[in-house]
Design goal:
Helix content is 48%, strand content 14%. It is α/β, with parallel strands linked by helices.
C-alpha cells in the first residue's frame, strides 16, 4: 500500500507533526510526497519518502498519474483553505482523480487521523473494492 503526502506551505508544520506522531504506522507503507513536503518530512523523521516535484511544478500531477495507474492507495493532502493557490486547477484535478479512482483523500488533520488510525487497525481494505469498481473507468 502506498500513501501520498502533500501539504500547502502554511500546513507543512502540521504535516511534519502528523508524520512524527504517526511515524510508527507510516513506516510500514510506501510513501510519496511532493518536493518540499517530502524533504521536510525526511529531515524531521526516519521515514523513507519517494520525492516528486513541488506541487506548483507538477508534483500534484505526478501524484495524479500514480493514482490513475493505481499505485497510490491513500492521499493525505493538508490543504490551506485560507490562501489562494496559483495551481488550484491541479489541486482540483488531483481531488477529482481520487473520486474517480475511489482513493480516500484526507484534506485536513482530523480526516488524516481517522484514516491513519483505521489503517493501523486494519479497517481500510478498499483496494479490492477499488479494483472491481474502477474497471468502468
Amino acid at each position: 500500500m502506498n500513501i501520498a503526502l502533500v501539504a500547502h506551505d502554511e500546513m507543512k508544520n502540521m504535516m511534519i507533526g502528523f508524520c512524527i506522531a504517526y511515524e510508527r504506522i507510516l513506516e510500514k507503507y510506501g510513501l510519496y510526497a511532493t518536493g518540499t513536503t517530502g524533504k521536510r518530512i525526511m529531515d524531521e523523521t526516519e521515514l523513507k519518502i519517494t520525492r516528486l516535484a513541488s506541487g506548483p511544478l507538477g508534483g500534484d500531477q505526478q501524484i495524479g498519474s500514480l493514482i490513475v495507474s493505481q499505485d497510490i492507495d491513500l492521499v493525505i493532502f493538508l490543504r490551506d483553505p485560507l490562501t489562494s493557490q496559483a495551481h488550484e486547477p491541479d489541486i482540483q484535478a488531483l481531488v477529482r482523480l481520487c473520486d474517480v479512482y475511489h482513493v480516500p483523500v484526507a484534506t485536513n488533520l482530523a480526516s488524516a487521523e481517522i484514516f491513519i488510525k483505521a489503517l493501523d487497525r486494519g479497517e481500510l481494505s478498499w483496494r479490492e473494492v477499488r479494483k472491481t469498481t474502477s474497471q468502468r473507468v
